[in-house]
Sequence to fold (1005 residues):
Amino acid sequence: MTLKISCIKLIREDIRHRGWAAALSCIVLVLMMPVYTILYLSTFSRLTPGSGERAYLISYFPGLFNGGNVPVLAAGIGALAVLLALTGFGYVHSREKLDLYHSLPVKRTRLFAAVYLSGLLMFLVPYVICSALIMAAGASRGILSPELAVSCAFAVLGGILAWLVIYTSCVFAVMLTGRTAIGLFASLVVIVLPFMMLFLLSSLQTAFFESYYTVETPLSQRLADYLSPLGIFSALISQSSSGEFSISLAAAAVILTAVLTAAALLLYRIYPSEAAGNTVAFPVISPVVKVVICIPGALFAGLMAQTLIGITDSSWICLMSLIAALVICAIIEFLYTMDLRLLLKGWRSSLISVGAVLAILCIFRFDLLGYDTYLPDEDRLEGISFYPDSFSSYFSYPDTEFPSESSLGYYVPEENMDLVRDLARSGIQNLKEGITPDQFYTPDETDIPEGYLPVIFRYSLSGGRTVLRQYAASQEETAETLEQLLENESYRKQLFPVFHIDRDKVVSLQLSDICGQSTNMDLNKQQRDALLDAYENDVMKVSADTLINGKPIGELIVDLPYPESMTETDALTTDKSYSSAGNLISLPMLYIYPEYADTLALLQEYGYPVHAEIDPADVSSITLSLSRTTIDSGSYDDMLQALSSTAEREDYDYSTDITVTSEEDIILMLDQLDGYYNGLLDLGSASMDYVNIYYKDGNFYGYSF
Amino acid sequence: MIELKNLDKTFRDIHAIDHISGSIREGMVFGMIGSNGAGKSTLLRMISGIVRPDSGEILADGKAVYENPEVKSQICFLSDTPYYFPNADIRQMRDYYMMIYPNFNQKLFDSLTGKFKLEPKRRISSFSKGMKKQVSILLGLCSGTKYLLCDETFDGLDPVVRQAVKSLFASEIMNRDFTPVISSHNLRELEDICDSIGLLHQGKLLLTQDLDQIKCSICKLQCVVPDPHREQALIRSLRILRMERTGSLLTLTVRGDRSQVLELVQAQEPLFAEVLPLTLEEIFISETEVAGYDIKDFLH
Fold:
């Protein structure tokens, strides 16, 4: 009982002595929470039930509690955590204060608890009161339903946990240091460094490895949300304000807070009073701290320099990182000694830091671990899939979750695994010869290697691990591989989206052809099913050569309802206007080839014939836009000279527009058209040249030229 | 009683306290003197439980001090630069000490602040350095602790206040179980008030004794012995700490009782002999000179 009373007295006294910090906490929170909310709510004039404004406000409202929608508040919460931690425990950085506090007949544990709790109360009390005021403001505008109140409560909880994570991180940092300014710097390091370290791996892979490919957030980056104070803070604020509250994230926050608090208490119990005024409270950790900060800091600085300066050569990253390592070592050594003459005092740890940075850079720069040339052993390989980049503009699947199986290509039959493995090997060889997937995404089209296309390979290994790589593969070899794979019926069924459609969910079908017009076909379910059956038959019957080398003449578009999961989310965000708009998802790119006899016949029978060519008689005019590069190259000189005198030419700085209206000119231009649809292995044109065809019915469509 | 058992403390490469052993008896004023950087403040901070010794043990009334609130409630430490809360006035500091020390004598404190003419409502930050020290002493004195550790607290006090504080200490010793431990460079001040002293030099405790005993065990001998053989015999017979010669006048700082020293010198038939007591300052200089801290080193 005595202990309890004493602790309360200590808390009371501490709050009294830090009255200014408590007052500042109150002012900041009042201004950023209830005052801001009231002002914000006043901008909404009508909040009638069912209105879009009301729905928007309800989805926005929880974010007013923790800064999810008010970044200044989130920053304020973080800043208050730092401030209260530094003002509370800053006494350990002053000899005079330590002489008073540590001579008191109070155990350090109790003193720590009192100061820790007083800081917590200085935030918690005004925060909870301000949250209650926001709730009251929401209720007064009639938007506070029980469900929203729960969301708001989670947002408040998220805000408190986020504050706690930053607060304990700072307390821990204070215990490692002997000066308040250094304590502030150390706080930033404790908060940011783990986040930076976890981000580095994938960032370095992206920067150095040509074959690096990922479809989802890398594991190390996902771990940052659970292991680093900054990641947890950010994730808690954003998640809890958007109506989601992950138990695992809350648990991570609680565990991290508990671990950091325990560590801080342990350090405080052994904190040497004579450390006040020193940079590091425990000199033995100085070299370790330097190495731990320097390595990720230098690598991060190198990557930042690359991003900011816009350099692409990874050698520059190495140079910048090494310079950064030297600078960071010098800065830390200066902070330790406060004497420029002693910058080399800790030369051993500096050497280790720079050496480690150099070693890491060598591993990545020279691919010492063989990342880019990795090809799993056959006995470890359980499955392999490949996904040429052209598939993304050829196939469209009904699954909406990302990353889906379809976005990485379907696993090939076991008997064909060697085919794909050989293609991957060929990709590795291309990479060694300097043909990389990155070249396809550069803005300069002249860098794009001809006859190649980027292909993603997915290896499923024994043990459950999945490995992704991307290489530039020869179009010819890819076509050969695909041709053989398409001979397999089950693979063909997997690959083509029509076989993934749930017929019962099909709402309607549209038809689009080379004229670009999309027609909603008035068909009953039987007709739709019959058409899709015919289409399936054609897909299975058509030769692989047609699919790979042929040109589609039209496409079927299937209208499906939004998946349940998406509508539920929409309901949660209460955007009802969205669902009332029909809520359909269109699945395009069920391409039709001239060889799809059954499909074409059925379409003809239903009264929707497919136009295989553009009839010049339907065209009123064509405007051809040629880039300056094309004009200068003279590629179309013959055609341009053949145009009649009615053709109008307009020159701009970077392009030239030629508009033709006469039938012979239109025919001439239509002959040059590249077609409306891409083939199975076509990457699409990167050319800046295009034509706009204006039809007599008033429509116009753009085509690549 | 405070017992120091083989205390040792090193700050990085500075050996601040070098295996010190000794004791501070109850009911007397203990003075801690020493050269600059001798380790006085460190020792006091160790006794008050602020600094943890690397090795050794500090016992107050038989119990370890560090992290022991029960023992620390009987020890009040007054730093050489006392800390007061921002914007605090005397009453707020008094209330804080009352919360911490259950035996705090509020009546005495209020009375003394009145006598020392310290305005209770005035911010302590606006006080002069000496007034801040006065507040610190009064807070410590009234905290009711058995041990009061004063780290150079008397420095900066005017002579009247210093005298008043000495009287207060004497009064407290008379009235209750009270043992002040005072470290200071002002040896003349300590000489007046201390019953016992400890002499620190370079982290080592050179001596710890009652002041009277020290004064009895060390003295200054001035003599003229005409016969050089007898003079040499006298020098051999004495435990000399310091020796100076001015013409035929020999001035010696020697260990031993004054009467014994006088007997020894008389035996050598001097023309003139006189044995004088040493001031604390002279004792300090002599003892530290023996330990290698010689004023001549500063002059040459």
Notes: The CA atoms of residues 508 and 559 of chain A lie 5 Å apart. Chain A has five domains: 7-179+234-276, 282-372, 381-495, 503-605, 616-704.
